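User: Fold both of these, please.

Assistant: Here is the first one.
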Amino acid sequence: MDLKHLQALIGIADHGSFSAAAVAIGTVQSNVSAHVARLERELDVVLVERSSGRLTAEGLVVVGRGRRMMGELEAMVSDVAAMREDVSGTVRVGMIGTTGRWLVPQLFSAVREQHPGVLLRVTDGTSNSLEPQLISGQLDLAVVTLPVPSEELSAAALFEEDLMLVVPMDHPLAERKGDDGAAALPLSVLDNLSLLLPMPGTALRDEIDAAAEPAGITLRPSMELDGVRMIASLTFDGYGPAILPATAIPRHLRDRFVPLALEGFPRRRVGIAVRRQGLPSAPSRAVMDLLRAVIRDPDTVPEGLHPSGPVIRR
């Protein structure tokens, strides 16, 4: 078995055909075909359906393991370079949308300043979409909503974020916000209020349900969506109120929408997730350190966000 064989198969998985894989890895289609054929002979299975270019079930297993192997090789090269005080390499980061909007610019600036040899590749998505990519080796780490359900992943808390009822300025509930904005509304305001809500089974929906049910509150969804950023976008386009993290409201919309605190409501928990098996590379560890530093810097932390751990300055 040769690394080129695995690279060819991963290329087909990523790009959908032998010809597209050849372009992506800088070779010709006949070489890709030969590499895959040798790998199939080695394993005594069919890995790619030639008529469609789709991977078989066995091919998907090999690609999953192959990604991890390639990731470990990249990490080895990066770790050796870091021993010469040269932290460099590519770090593939997954980021939930509402957090990424304000956190990615801060992280990019910190990486460019402290580790200019590190290239960030950021994938935007929901926790549900990012976690499988992390497990398969397509991502090195991911900033996701906690808890992380998969036993193949481990996570460390990064911050907690206030969950607020967000309504337009002309909504009747907007008038109930005090002048100082500190007074929390009773949960009864949610009873039978038509809301844009997260999909059942998502971490955020579980948090909302856990607060509403003991209080006897009946949540009435106008729509259920997978992705906080999508919910926020629809709210800001006028499709209805929603329960959103405090940082989901961009500054330029603060004069049009009102965040209302709710009595006894939980906070959204966000953390950094990595694979349990395998050691993160030196560049990945450096990026995780910078994520924690950015979150704990009072000059960059948005209102309504509470870092996990002591507040420090970078």
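And the second sequence with its predicted structure:
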Amino acid sequence: MKHLLSVQELSRAGTLRILDTALELNQVTDGGTKILPTLRGRTVVNLFYEDSTRTRISFERAAKRLSADVVTFSAKGSSVSKGESLKDTALTLNAMGADMIVVRHPSPGAAHRLAHAGWLESSVLNAGDGKHEHPTQALGDAFTLRAHLRPGAKDFAGLTIGIVGDVLHSRVARSNIFLLGILGAKVIVIGPPTLLPVGIENWPCEVSYSLDAYLPELDAIMMLRVQQERMNGTFFPSELEYSRTFGLNRKRARELPEHAIVMHPGPMNRGVEITAEVADSAQSVITEQVVNGLVVRMASMYLLIGGNVSVA
């Protein structure tokens, strides 16, 4: 596979190949080797049409840890703000000899268009396209789940994962639902009907409108940010009402099994989908998700442009 655009293009074997490679890279870097020569002489371009802090910095650090030359391109202050099309930007980057384009774009399908329109010779890695997908976030989350709940396992059979909140606007939720399904986990999506996408009953998950009913069954719970910036109407009465019904507080966290972990892709709205007390608790692996996202992005880059192993 030349590109990584969607988790739905991955097989279970391909997913495990990325996770196993990430584990090996993590062990090497933890052992003191912070910079690896793997991508020396390669150029990675971060092409970001949306504001980002965590994802942009994570991709920059991943590429630099593999010794790649990194160019970060923001739409603001570039020729894009003057009306340059995605095609012309791609042709320019191709002429400059980029080996990989990491793209974040507000339009679903933009990464796929960039990869398959014939404008580029380089690999394309989707860093989030609209409400569609965010594959490396889901892979990082799977790495975290595996480390805590299934060390070394080849699948997630027997695990039950709850994904709670604004699924409608969340590319992270979509990628996680499908990737966890590939790995054999049971996924329960929980939220108000107004924040669940049409057709979700055809996705590999169960759907519930009650958080409290499922807490004792969950091995992990992933709280999603309420994405007010993507909302052009009223999806729930108030933030207070949302928090009372679907927020994870200390009382609800106590209903989880003792081994269960609490996740959040960030950035968090503390006091809305999760309280500060739970976000900072021993159950929380939220900061660990950030670290694991880095090693998974290193693994994805290595397999796509540095190694001889396919991620298909």
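The CA atoms of residues 79 and 89 lie 8 Å apart.
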